[in-house]
Specification:
The chain has 203 residues and is mostly helical. The protein has seven helices and five strands. Strand 3 and strand 4 form a beta hairpin. The two termini are 17 Å apart.
Length: 203
Amino acid sequence: MTESVLSAAQIGELEQIYAGLEREYARVAGVLGLSCQGCPDNCCDSYFLHHSYVEWAYFRLGLSQLPEPRQERVRELAGRYLRESARLIAAGERPQLMCPLNDEGLCQLYSHRLLVCRTHGVPARMRRPDGQVLRFPGCFRCQEIVAGTSAKALPEVDRSAFFHRLARLEREFRQQHRPELPRLRLTIAEMLLQGPPGTEQSV
């Protein structure tokens, strides 16, 4: 596979999903008065695993558009991240390391960042296909703002429709390329080092 494994229609659908989620995020953040400005925390050091091949392909497309020297620097930082996170996990600790794409507080792939990077912060809920409803409290600053607010009065982003659209797009992508691909559980650092989805390049 090459970096351009997504069709124009798939890119358009994914960007619509992202845009819809960001509008909902902005709406809820506005109601709560939540802003990242001046926050002492940094969400870019949170340890997340990502599960979507179609997002990985879009993410890699963004990486391929960076100048080569910057790509090399990102890969170098990703290698450091991977080694240190492996050490921490082996010691029974959850890694809290700065994302290799963070450059003085700015994401170098902001327009191609993954879904979790776009939604973390405000309270949210999601209904799974089996009917179970999952709730997410938001970042620590958000939890401070809403402390004492009843759950019924708490504004939330309903991620359900967006995630269902993403799941359909993911199925389409896998059927188009390699239906037998295993369940994905990768950090951003691993996505940066492994190459585009399906290449199976070793880290």
